[in-house]
Structure prediction request, 125 residues.
Amino acid sequence: MSINKVILVGNVGQDPKVRELPDGRQVASFSVATSRKVRDVEHTEWHNLSAFDKCADIVSQYVRKGAMVYIEGRAQTRKYTAADGTPKETREVIVGHIQILSKARAAEQQYEGLPKDEDEDDVPF
Prediction:
C-alpha cells in the first residue's frame, strides 16, 4: 500500500489561468508559495498546482493572487515536449480540496458580493 497526499498552506503567486482541454474539461493552473525559516533565513518554495472540472471552476471564481489557501491534493509528474522538441518533465500538485484562509486585497471586490451569512472562506466541493 502507498499514499500520495500533499498538504500545502501558502500564498497564491498569480491569478489562476483557466483553459479548456481537448476533451472539453476545464483546468485551472496556479502557483502557491510556502516558506520556512532556517537560522533566521527565510526559504521560499514554489508549487505548481492544477485543478480540474468543478474544482477548476471554483478556483477560477474565488482564488486570486496573494490569497492564503489550504490545499490538499496529490503529487504528479507530467512529461511533455517543449517547443524546441526537447522532452521535459514537471512536478505539480493536483488539487482535490481547497480552502481559502484569507482574502487577497485584489479580490476584495469579488467577496463583497457574497451574502453576509455565507462562509466565504470555506469553498465547498
